[in-house]
Specification:
With about 375 residues, the protein is an alpha+beta fold. It has 7 helices and 20 strands. The chain is about 20% helix and about 30% strand.
């Protein structure tokens, strides 16, 4: 798992001023709440006193109150009250927990899980500008978890060849051969526009089937991923003016558990009465994907391309792996073996920007990272 990236932590509506909201990301626990101005605070969830879970406590005046002995932490993660010592008692410098930058975009709360100062922090990619254009695009939302490593999970979505065999409604089983289209490489992602054989008319059901001609031969599919923000968009265009955008962000929860946050927007049949059909189609596709991706071995994507027999039609997956490896080469990959060893008897947290400024005065240690390598760029 990689640090120094933006990850979706929650839906915006899940985070309030009234109650702490706990989430797990990158194998660590976090607590989210809103301050008086409505800004989202994201803190490490483990209290530095004696390990209380802050998400089980309360929010009071833009502070989270630990449920165990009532220590109060502000939005910066600083302890501002130790009730047992009395109001006004001096607070030790190390009475603090990590606080992470947050931003709201696409109806989601994103947290920057890493210690880069603001000037070096990248922006969340603008991969779904249609989010604002509700006159043209009508959206449904979805979310699910996969018992799969985040790289395996993301590769599944970038994989064009699997649709033929895994998805009953949008695979073209009569014509599995794919033409190879050139990839456009970006700094932290890649994009491809393909023309794929269309599924047979009998594979589509419901209202969508009524709109598509039986003679339709191909679907145009545009696909783009960004490792920055760990998200992608897939846009099939079935015919002129009839298109879907699937925009999804992926959050590694644990090494072998991942979460998906998704929007599907359509520019046809925009009335809400057609939402149920779209959601049923998404749920079917998710079940189909999970049936294969949760059983892929090894659980982790191999560290070398030579360990699997990759072919030309695996181009996007290869591009994704290379981006991940370049990121890891910067020294931003969590050392999972060291974490497993060390976390038996200590709390490890994702380092936050304040920790880089003052690395010493913390109770909890930062997660161990794998060393940077020379091919970092
Ligand atoms: S463990 Fe949090 S206040 Fe004691
Ligand atoms: Fe799939």
């Amino acid at each position: 798992m990689l640090i120094n990236n933006w990850y979706v932590a929650a839906w915006s509506h899940e985070v309030t001023t009234r109650k702490p909201f706990g989430v797990r990301m990158l194998g660590c626990d976090f607590v989210l709440f809103r301050d008086a101005e409505g800004g989202v605070v994201c803190l490490s969830d483990v209290c530095c006193h004696r390990g209380g879970a802050l998400a089980g406590g309360k929010v009071n005046n833009a502070r989270v109150v630990c449920p165990y002995h009532g220590w109060n932490f502000d939005g910066k993660g600083n302890c501002v009250l130790i009730p047992s010592m009395g109001e006004g008692a001096p607070i030790p410098r190390r009475a603090r927990i990590d606080s992470y930058p947050t931003q709201e975009k696409y109806g989601w709360v994103w947290a920057f899980l890493g210690d880069l100062p603001e000037s070096e922090r990248p922006s969340i990619p603008d991969l779904f500008p249609e989010y604002e254009d509700t006159a043209t695009w009508h959206r449904v939302s979805y979310g699910f978890e996969a018992k799969a490593n985040w790289m395996r999970f993301e590769e599944n979505s970038l994989d064009t060849a699997h649709t033929t065999f895994v998805h009953q409604q949008f695979g073209a089983i009569r014509n599995p051969k794919l033409e190879v289209f050139p990839l456009e490489h970006k700094e932290w992602g890649a994009r491809v526009a393909r023309v794929k054989p269309a599924p047979g008319a009998d594979q589509k059901t419901g209202e969508m089937a009524k709109l598509l001609s039986a003679e339709r031969k191909s679907t145009q599919v545009e696909l783009e991923f960004s490792l920055l923000g760990l998200c992608h968009r897939i846009q099939p265009t079935f015919r002129e003016g009839m298109s879907l955008i699937n925009f999804t962000a992926r959050t590694p929860v644990e090494d072998k558990l991942s979460r998906a946050f998704g929007w599907q927007a359509r520019n046809y049949l925009k009335e809400p009465q057609y939402d149920a059909e779209r959601i049923a189609a998404i749920e079917l596709a998710v079940r189909e994907d999970l049936s294969v991706v949760e059983r892929v071995r090894p659980v982790h994507t191999p560290g070398s391309l030579a360990d699997e027999l990759l072919v030309e039609t695996d181009g996007m997956e290869v591009a994704f792996r290379k981006c991940c490896w370049r990121w890891a080469a910067k020294g931003w990959e969590i050392d999972r073996d060291a974490v497993e060893r060390l976390s038996r008897n200590q709390i490890l947290v994702i380092p936050s920007p304040a920790r880089r400024e003052d690395p010493k005065n913390w109770i909890h240690k930062a997660v161990p990272l794998r060393a940077a390598s020379t091919d970092a760029n």
